[in-house]
Design brief:
The complex is a heterodimer of chains A (about 160) and B (about 550). By secondary structure, chain A is an alpha/beta fold. Chain A is built from five helices and eight strands. An eight-stranded mixed sheet of chain A has the order 2-1-8-7-6-5-4-3. In chain A, helix 4 links the parallel strand 7 and strand 8. With about 550 residues, chain B is an alpha+beta fold. Chain B is built from 18 helices and 21 strands. In chain B, the strands form four sheets. In chain B, strands 16, 17, 18, 19, 20 and 21 form a six-stranded mixed sheet that branches. A five-stranded antiparallel sheet of chain B has the order 1-2-5-4-13. Chain B is globular. The chains are: A alpha/beta (about 160), B alpha+beta (about 550). At the A-B interface, helix 3 and helix 4 of A face helix 1, helix 2, helix 5 and helix 6 of B. Bound molecules: iron/sulfur cluster. Iron/sulfur cluster binds next to loops of chain B. The site of iron/sulfur cluster has 13 residues of chain B, from loops.
């Protein structure tokens, strides 16, 4: 999967399986599976030789994942449309409430002009929509050099430094 | 008023650059209309019926003279020489060209202004009481808290893609002049039994298609918890507000669907996690922001002036203006002056460049360099010495800004309607004109007394028609403009939604129907009763009969 991560463009081995069939075995390789699939097939996911990550959408209850976070090197958050903002809250809960330290990846309708907000909410890699210019998107992470409120990236509000 | 430091300036300048680039990419075809829309909306830019419309933020309605001069300059340079003050204390330009909007934003930034979050599904400009800091009924000045909320909500990374727009209003007085109860979050500054001030929090108010008065979910919130509590409300809304149906996406629908108690419980639960985090508001920060709103240096001799009484007794037109447009100030010898943007024939809330320049000069000369915008679309000079009132009046007259009609029926709230707005069903401004022409007798208007007419060109209710004493809603009947009247609404402390009068009436009959409503009022009013009092006492029937009687007989 091609992503922006650590201020650079990377290609990594994660593959998103949006609709794993219930009976077949999962293919090999590092996979991102839907949250609902993971819930029902936790044993299968654990036994795999390769890595498994989970993909959360706005409808999912992130609290159900809270006790299992250390199994995941990556959690994907799905933005079905760029204006669906629920996963911003999911990201903040993962980071600030549940202390998740792995990679949080935005997937779906991920566009340049939302990256700055995503980053502030604790999202650490961005699977930009494939038809978009990754180089161009990279620039947006520097849109603002100052922010008012605390968030997952910078905990303290600006006024503390004034 | 609040003055930007280097940080604030950087943020606004970086926003201008960001938007310039977004607009460039849109014009170059790199951004689709769908992708550009939320971006331009978060800068207050709509694509309207005839041209784009740009809404510029006036945080809690406060302007310096230089800022107002810039607003006039922009009207002249980029638009047709006028701007429209809206019910959210903002200003709207109806004719800018899309390509020039980045330049307008750059000009605004030079006077510490912007169009950030004046539209879009995000936290909008915070509104407040136009008499903040000067009224006799004030518990505490709300403006420092408005500014604190403004900063917290500006580019809030978690709450910039909410299910729907989100409006917050704050009032610190005993009388509500900010329509607090019809906001997504309404905040009243209150005193508890120990005499400490804190906040009463309401949620779920709003007009539009399904109007609601807000409900109290927190009776007393300590000041240091302001931001953590707001953040909790917003998080619950962001996660659970409906996103499948744009008409059901406001927080009022969520609160109604799950019940205010359940909603409050969810907020409390969320709050229990974030209460004591870095969201705690430092006392030091409150003090720092308060300094920007410190009292100006009033003249201790102001009350010794004798010319004021003399002018009142000698000039009838002047004394009428004072009676209607000049309000008390907490400091003896000072007054607050309403500048009416409701002259007959003027689209309510519109001001020309020349008018803005004049008001800016008057503010500089007579009112500590400060202007306030009201949610009922007028301007206020907050602190005028009574000895200066006569000069102010004379100068205002020269630009038709001294119509003595504040609070009277011609002081209407009116949305842009069919003349500008792409969503409108019917015109609003032509109805305002019709009413102004029909009721041109000042003595009659004064006899009728306090009467708020509010009108909207469609269900979206930008003109607050649900909370007008008389509300007028434009509807479309088979391609014809019709108007649905409501009676008895108010956005004051005793906020109430108006009741429907009956079937919608044709465009030509609106003023005439209002006359019939007022005839019934005049006939039935008791001593000292205003229209709303009489309506509340006698109910709808009498008014209904008065308006529809003949039509039935036909
Ligand atoms: S009420 Fe309707 S017609 Fe009037 S400005 Fe709002 S959206 Fe437009």
């Amino acid at each position: 999967m091609r992503v922006i991560k650590d201020n650079a463009i990377h290609e990594d081995n994660w593959v998103l399986i949006s609709e794993p069939s219930q009976d077949d075995e999962l293919p090999g390789g590092d996979l991102i599976v839907p949250f609902d699939y993971w819930k029902e097939n936790q044993a299968i996911c654990k036994q795999r030789d390769d890595k498994t990550a989970v993909c959360i959408n706005g409808d999912n209850n992130i609290a159900e994942l809270a006790d299992h976070l250390d199994q995941f090197q990556l959690i994907a958050l799905e933005f079905p449309a760029h204006k669906d903002g629920r996963c911003y809250s999911h990201a903040r809960l993962l980071r600030d409430r549940y202390g998740y330290a792995g990679d949080i990846r935005a997937i779906g309708d991920v566009l340049r002009d939302q990256l700055f907000y995503m980053k502030r909410c604790g999202i650490s890699s961005f699977a930009i929509r494939e038809d978009k210019d990754f180089e161009d998107a990279l620039k947006s992470l520097k849109d603002f050099s100052v922010t008012y409120q605390g968030a997952s990236d910078e905990n303290l509000p600006l006024y503390k430094t004034r | 008023m609040y003055i930007y430091d280097e940080y604030d300036k950087t943020i606004v300048n970086e926003r201008v650059d960001q938007f310039r680039d977004q607009t460039r990419r849109f014009l170059a075809g790199e951004l689709s209309e769908d992708e550009y829309r939320p971006l331009r909306l978060m800068n207050g830019l709509y694509l309207q019926r005839y041209a784009p419309m740009l809404r510029v933020a006036i945080p809690y309605g406060l302007l310096s003279s230089n800022q107002l001069r810039m607003l006039g300059y922009i009207a002249n340079k980029y638009d047709k020489n006028y701007g429209h003050f809206s019910t959210r204390q903002n200003i709207q330009y109806n004719w800018p060209r899309l390509e020039t909007v980045p330049d307008i934003l750059a000009d605004l930034a030079t006077v510490e202004m912007h169009a950030i979050q004046t539209s879009g599904n995000c936290i909008r400009n915070v509104t407040s009481d136009q008499f903040a800091g000067i009224s006799v009924d004030e518990i505490e000045d709300p403006r420092p808290y408005c500014e604190i909320i403004r900063q917290w909500s500006t580019f809030h990374p978690e709450f910039s893609y909410l299910p729907r727009k989100f409006k917050i209003a704050v009032s610190g007085a005993e009388n509500d002049r900010a329509a607090v109860q019809v906001h997504d979050i309404g905040i009243y500054i209150v005193k508890n039994e120990q005499g400490e001030t804190g906040f009463k929090i309401l949620v779920g108010g709003g007009l539009g298609r399904l109007p609601h008065i807000g409900v109290v979910i927190k009776k007393f919130l300590e000041k240091r918890y302001l931001l953590s509590y707001l953040e909790s409300i917003l998080r619950v809304y962001n996660m659970f507000g409906r996103r499948d149906n744009i008409h059901k996406a406001r927080i009022k629908i969520l609160v109604k669907a799950i019940g205010a108690d359940k909603f409050a419980e969810m907020v409390e639960e969320e709050w229990s996690h974030v209460k004591e985090t870095s969201l705690l508001l430092d006392e030091k920060e409150i003090t720092r922001v308060k300094k920007y709103f410190a009292q100006p240096e009033y003249d201790p001799q102001a009350n010794n002036d004798e010319t004021f009484q003399k002018n009142l007794s000698e000039n009838k037109a002047y004394s009428l203006w004072v009676k209607q447009n000049v309000k008390n100030h907490k400091i003896p010898g000072y007054r607050a002056v309403y500048i009416s943007l409701k002259a007959p024939g003027n689209p309510p809330g519109d001001a020309t460049n020349e008018q803005m320049q004049l008001v800016a000069d008057l503010a500089e000369k007579y009112s500590f360099d400060e202007i306030r915008v009201t949610h009922d679309q007028n301007l206020v000079l907050g602190h005028v010495k009574q000895e200066d009132l006569y000069s102010v009046w004379e100068e205002l007259k020269s630009e038709e800004l001294a119509t003595p009609n504040i609070g009277l029926m011609t002081d209407m709230i009116c949305c842009p309607g069919l003349d500008f707005c792409a969503l409108a069903n019917a015109g609003s401004i032509p109805i305002a004109n019709q009413i102004n022409k029909y009721f041109d007798d000042m003595d009659y208007l004064h006899d009728i007394g306090e009467l708020q007419i509010k009108m909207s060109g469609c269900m979206n209710a930008c003109g607050h028609h649900h909370v007008g004493h008389i509300g007028i809603l434009g509807v479309d009947k088979k391609g014809n403009e019709f108007y649905q009247l409501t009676l008895g609404g108010t956005a004051a402390m005793d906020a109430t939604l108006g009741d429907r009068l009956g079937p919608a009436i044709p465009k030509s009959d609106v003023a005439d129907s209002i006359k019939k409503i007022l005839d019934a009022y005049v006939e039935h009013r008791e001593d000292g009763e205003q229209f709303l009092d009489t309506y509340r006492r006698i109910g709808m029937d009498t008014f209904k009969k008065s308006v529809y009687a003949e039509q039935k007989g036909k």
